[in-house]
């Protein structure tokens, strides 16, 4: 599958709403040019990723990565995160995932992110949040 990653535009919102599992405001992220979308060979939106330029302790923070189920394990998340890394350079990029989100935890590990801390029981469901960092220098 060929994947094109570009800045999200308002016309992408309808497609994203069909598979979006994350909190946040995609509309606002697009207005602020911090939401990227992945487009497949059929010109369909199959994923998105967003970040905050000064999210956590003044560092760029990868907020969300969401890929439509039918396109998972096809390199979509990797392409999206690489584009966010490019936008965040030359900073250290931070992110986090719930301790039950094994797919994302495995993704971070496979892409060279370092686990840097855990907040135990901080989420509404009682789960812990694991924080990660990737040095982009």
Overview of the structural elements:
The chain has 137 residues and is of the alpha+beta class. The protein has a single domain (4-135), classed as 3-Layer(aba) Sandwich (Aminopeptidase), CATH 3.40.630.30. The protein has helices at residues 13-17, 26-31, 76-88, 102-110; strands spanning 4-7, 35-39, 45-56, 59-67, 92-98, 114-119, 129-135. The protein has a seven-stranded mixed sheet with strand order 1-2-3-4-5-7-6. Strand 3 and strand 4 form a beta hairpin. The longest helix has 13 residues, at 76-88. InterPro entries: Acyl_CoA_acyltransferase, GNAT_dom. Residues 1-137 form the N-acetyltransferase domain. It holds the Pfam family Acetyltransf_1.
Short description:
A seven-stranded mixed sheet has the order 1-2-3-4-5-7-6. The chain is an alpha+beta fold and 137 residues long.
Any key phrases for this structure?
single chain; 4 helices; globular; seven-stranded mixed sheet; Aminopeptidase; 36% strand; 137 residues; alpha+beta; 24% helix
What's the layout of helices and strands?
Layout: E1 4-7, H1 13-17, H2 26-31, E2 35-39, E3 45-56, E4 59-67, H3 76-88, E5 92-98, H4 102-110, E6 114-119, E7 129-135
Parallel strand pairs: 4-5
Antiparallel strand pairs: 1-2, 2-3, 3-4, 5-7, 6-7
């Amino acid at each position: 599958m060929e994947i094109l990653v570009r800045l999200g535009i308002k016309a992408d919102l309808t497609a994203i709403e069909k598979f979006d599992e994350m909190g946040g405001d995609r509309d606002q992220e697009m207005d602020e040019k911090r939401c990227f979308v992945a487009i497949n060979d059929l010109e369909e939106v199959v994923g998105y990723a967003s970040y905050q330029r000064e999210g956590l302790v003044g560092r760029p923070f990868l907020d969300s990565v969401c890929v439509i189920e039918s396109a998972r394990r096809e390199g979509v998340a990797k392409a999206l995160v690489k584009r966010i890394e490019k936008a965040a350079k030359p900073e250290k990029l931070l992110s986090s995932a719930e301790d039950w989100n094994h797919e994302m935890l495995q993704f971070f590990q496979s892409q060279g992110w370092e686990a840097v801390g855990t907040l135990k029981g901080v989420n509404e469901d009682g789960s812990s949040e694991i924080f990660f960092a990737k040095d982009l220098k």
